[in-house]
Amino acid sequence: MPGWCGVTVLRFENVRKVFGPHVVLDDVSLDVPAHSVTVLIGASGSGKSTLLRCANLLETVDDGAIFLSGREITDPRVNVDEVRQKIGVVFQAYNLFPHLSVLDNITLAPRRVHGVARREAEDRALALLDRLGLRGKAADYPDRLSGGQQQRVAIVRALATDPTLLLLDEITAALDPELVGEVLNVVASLKDDGMTMVIATHEMGFAREVADQVCFLADGRVLERGSSTQLFGEPQEERTQQFLRRVSARS
Length: 251
Known about the structure:
Low-confidence stretches: 1-6
Number of helices: 9
Largest sheet: 6 strands, mixed
C-alpha cells in the first residue's frame, strides 16, 4: 500500500453511511488540504459528527472511500490503530479519565500506544500544557478543573501524539458561554501553527474567523462549500441562506 504522503491530507470520495432506514451521509465527497481548516456547519442531524467519526474509523462507511495522506483507510486490510495514531480527536465530552492526573491523561496514549519513554512523553506534555496556560494543573485531577480547562486538556491530549490531522466535534457545546472563548482561542492558535483541522461547530463567528473552507451539510450531503468570505457573505443555496438566517437570529 502507498505510504503517508500527499498535499491533500483527508479525502472523502462518495461516502455513504446508513443507520437502518436513515441515510446519514449521502454521497459525500470532500478534500481537506494540508495546513488548512475545514469547518462543517449545519443543523443537528445533518451528518457533521458522523462524517468525523467515519474519518477516525469509529464508524464504518457503507459505500465510497476515505483517504488519509493518499492512503485508503477504509480498505479492510488497513490497521485501524495505525490510522488512529495519525489522527487527533476532541469531542464535546472531555472524556478524561477521572482517576488519572492531567499529566497521566495526556501521556497515557504516547506511552502505551506509541511506546514513547515516560520522560519524553512527560516533557512534551508539559511543554504543551505550558503553551495552553495549564502547566500548573499537571498534577490535578479532572474534577478540579473548570469545563474550559478540561477541554483544553483534551486538546493537549490529542496533540501529544503529534497527529497529522485534528478532528474537533462541537468542542464548545458542553461549555458555559464564558468559557467558550478560551477554547476557541486555542484552536485559532493551532491554525496559526499550520495544523490541519476539520471542525464541526455551531459557533458561526468562530467558523467565519478560522475557516479556509466552509461546508454546509443538510440531509447528509454537502449542499454548499466555499471560502469563509463566500459562504457567509454570499451563500448560493437557499437552504444555506435559511440556516444562516436562523442561527443569526438566535445569536
